[in-house]
Amino acid sequence: MNRNVYNIHILGLGFMFVFSAFITASFIEAIVFKDFNRNGIDSKTGFYSLAIIYVCLGLANWFSPAIVNKLGCKFSLFLSAIPYTGFVFCMINPYLWSVFTLSALLGAGGGVIWTANGEVIAKNSPGDTKAKNTGIFWSWFNTSMLLGNVFLYFYLGNSETISDGQRHVIYLVLGIFCAIGMFTFLLLAPSGTQSGEEAGNVPVREPQSIVQPIIDAAKFCKTWQMGFLYGPTVFTGVSLNFWSSVFITIIGNVFPNRSYLALGGICTGIGEISAGFIWGRLTNKIGRHGVVMCSTVINCCLYYLAFISFPFDAATTTASVAEDNPIISSNIYLTLVMGVMLGLGDGGFNVSTYAALGTIYEDNPAPAFAVFKFVQSLIGATAFLYCGHLLLPYQLGILAVTCLVGCVCFITLERYPAQILVVTGDEHQD
Fold first, then answer.
1. How many other C-beta atoms lie within 10 A of the C-beta of residue 24?
2. What digits encode the pLDDT tens for the residues 142-159?
């Protein structure tokens, strides 16, 4: 195995362990805090914690390129994984101050860890190997949606609450996962050097100022293409809130068996993983706009099923189980199907939006992705602030409206010919 491929595998392995811990922890955070219910902590604390994470992630996104440029990829990855590990371990015996402080630090680390990830892939993908190496990384990363939840399912069994003892074991194991991933990053080797003519054509990279990414992104914010992309970007932020926390919280408030939380996470993960394969193949046949239209249909069907099968207080109740009566009886098998639909629908929008950004801003994609991540994170954070207070029909209404608006914006953008759509270097410098 050559050094470049080795580095991509090490990167993916590290992300798999770190995010197996974080994704599982964030899935069940609100329910864990609901069962804990002391030290000033309740179910809404979980939503506020996630809001803090995504606000700080969105802000850190602007400064992370300069940090990675200063520290290098290996140590940026290692240091940014420390707050992830601390956040997971603090759940063993949580206090309000520790949860919120580590949420803020995790969000800041999140901006750095993802920027460093992109740098490692770029530096270890000479020639036409970027697509293959990106695929290797995502194959490792996507298993993080399953690994932690599989452990959770077998460990919780038929428990109706998560006891203190169970919480200690869950977060100890997840914390060890995260620590393994953190130290895995130190195994990264210097990227393989290019030789001959190829190496001579690579420009020397000058140090980047902290404010430069903000200046660059401000220019991209004003392009008309980005104006259309705000629609689907806003939806992905609202959807992020629903699939990463609210959906699992609903399961915990409707079904007393706590192992169902893990099943919901596994099915959502299956949907997200499948989205990469299914929509990636279909894009060549039906286009990006066709993928977004199919995703919109799946999402709207999902929201209708959630509306009729879950109690209206399923996301907000402080009782042991939701007290409102659903239109039809709640069914765990239908709920698990909805989990797969949720992953497929969200994945379709993300795959298409990422592809559109990469195509439209191919000359200089980094600032465009920074704008996307910033808007998505702030919208997600806003959704985490209201989701513990709004009844489910209102949340589903917001999801449906933003999904339809995002679909219309994306289809409108895709109708423009490529020669008009692509932003050249001259345009974004004006």
1. 30
2. 788 888 999 999 999 888
- The tokens describing 334, both together, are 């239908």
State the first-to-last Cα distance of the chain, in angstroms, to the nearest integer: 45
The 10s digit of each residue's pLDDT in 203-212 is 444 555 667 6
Tokens of 309: 């099968």
**Separation of alpha carbons 410 and 225, rounded Å:** 10
CA atoms within 13 A on the CB side of 292: 29
Instruction: Give CA–CA dist 160/172, Å, rounded.
Output: 20
Residue 426 structure tokens? 């001259």
Residues 6+ apart with CB under 8 A from 199: 193
CB atoms within 10 A of CB 28: 33
pLDDT tens digits along 217-232: 677 777 788 888 999 9
**Residues counted in the chain:** 430
Taking the C-alpha atoms of residue 262 and residue 149, their distance in angstroms, rounded to an integer, is: 5
CB 237 within 8 A of CB 375: yes
Which stretches of the chain score pLDDT less than 50?
193-205
Q: How far apart are alpha carbons 377 and 364 in whole angstroms?
A: 21
Residue 43's closest CA among 84, 99, 89, 4? 99
Contact 370, 217 (CB under 8 A): yes
d(CA 99, CA 213): 30
Which pLDDT belongs to residue 67? 86
Would you state the structure tokens that stand for residue 2, as one six-digit string? 């050559």
Give the integer Cα–Cα distance in Å for 68 and 368. 18
For residue 270, what pLDDT is reported? 92
